[in-house]
Design brief:
This protein is an alpha/beta fold. It contains 1 helix and 19 strands. The chain folds into 2 domains: 33 residues; 176 residues, Pectate Lyase C-like. The longest helix has 32 residues.
Length: 217
């Protein structure tokens, strides 16, 4: 009887330890998936300043009125918020994802100002059911490989380079392959993908961009 009791206690301890380990692994995986990780491809790299449920995205390389950001991965978790700083004089914030995973926007993505925001990820972009935008300017999400700047050159996510004299407004999207989809699952009931500015544009440009509800602008 004593040995059975000891065995039962031992088994309970082992089970509790196993459950704790599983929970820790799950939390680590969730944290890894819900991260914004800058890469090292810019002259002045992007900087993420984290706090509970909020990431401030600062830094980046400035060219005239354009501010460029580059990330290895870019995700916003459910209930989380990520906002780009909007320095004085910046009209366009252009961000690319150079890693191999799609971007999952399940929380709130924003800009602390009125600049237009561009998000480029050739591997795909998904906006979850509770995704929201707090952007005073226009917003473009695309699975293009690069954005063109007239005769000045490209800002490419597939062949990362530090932007040269890309001082003019973006003028074209370039696709080097069959474009990955953009999926929008957001709903009007949760305010969904709506812009806070007046007379602004919201564009999702990908291979068969899909929506499970209307997009509010």
């Amino acid at each position: 009887m004593f040995s059975q009791s000891r065995f039962y206690q031992w088994w309970q301890l082992r089970l509790a330890s196993l459950l704790a380990l599983i929970a820790a692994i799950a939390a680590a995986n969730e944290s890894a998936l819900a991260q914004i990780v800058p890469d090292k491809t810019l002259e002045t790299n992007s900087v993420v300043i984290p706090s509970p449920n909020f990431d401030l995205i600062d830094g980046g390389t400035r060219r005239g009125a354009n501010l460029f950001h580059s990330f290895e991965q870019f995700n916003v978790k459910e209930g989380g918020r990520a906002s780009f700083s909007n320095p004085s004089g910046i009209k366009n914030i252009i961000s690319r994802v150079t890693g191999g995973n799609r971007s999952e926007i399940f929380g709130t993505l924003g800009v602390l100002g009125t600049a237009n925001l561009f998000l480029i990820n050739p591997n795909g972009i998904i906006f979850g059911p509770n995704a929201q935008l707090t952007i005073g300017g226009s917003f473009l999400a695309t699975t293009a490989n690069a954005i063109g700047f007239g005769e000045q050159g490209l800002f490419s996510a597939s062949v990362p380079n530090s932007p040269a004299l890309l001082t003019v407004n973006p003028s074209a999207l370039l696709f080097n392959q069959i474009a990955r989809p953009i999926t929008n699952q957001s709903t009007r009931a949760t305010r969904g993908l709506q812009l806070s500015g007046n007379q602004k544009s919201l564009l999702l440009v990908g291979g068969g961009a899909t929506r499970k509800s209307e997009i509010g602008v």
